[in-house]
Fold:
Amino acid sequence: METYTKLYDETSIQELYQRFKGYVVEKKLPYVRFQIRLSDCVITVYDSNKVVFQGENARFYSNTDNQIVLPQAGSDEVGTGDYFGPVVVCAAYIDENNLSLLSDFKITDSKQLSDDFIRQNAPKLIKELTHSLLILDPSKYNQVHLTNNMNQIKAKLHNQAYAHLKNKLQKWPSLCVVDQFTPESLYYRYLKNEPCIIQDLTFKTKAESQFPSVAAASMIARYAFLKAWDKMEEYYQCEIPKGAGKEVDKFGKTFIQKFGKDELGKIAKLHFKNSEKIGL
Structure:
């Protein structure tokens, strides 16, 4: 008997209901919305939007659009658009046991969530999900950037995060997704000299809105970024602006006057155009 577990959105669940309306059984089981009993497959729809296909033709019935294959892993990065602060990459793993957790959070791209929400909820994801987290502080970033461009750095961090995640898992999922920042061919070209290269990745733009594993990775990475930011502000006893706009330029000039140019390299990505505007 084959078993496939997927995560549907509400629209897809209603479409599934209408498609097999004559076979729906209103089962009163814990956490179950309804079941569809076919001769060669039983489809169980849970309150969490988890949909389980069981039977000799489960693969056929589960092979439709608007669903998510489980288990899966996903990776995302945070901090690459900020002049100050680290670059953080996370790879996270989810399976059917995590669906209710992710459904409760209704997580998406961390950029669409408030920092307060992330601070409150990300620790539970960190505790419950198997993941790998890498934090590249500005000093190290500036050193690496002398011989690697931004996309090379991100590719190597994603690859390393997946390599660490693979070591933590007993079974590697068939679906591993990268929130795409460069074409697949270039991604692997950037890794040609790496000792360990994780292959067979899926590259998708705006992956955080399609794959819960990427959304979870995005949220965990953002939380780590915020914690690093807290330490940075605590150390220098000042509020540091995010992004790379005019407020950043203004703060940078004040920072140099107070702490000196050498100190700036400890908190800033110096290849940004902001450095010229600041006066480096």
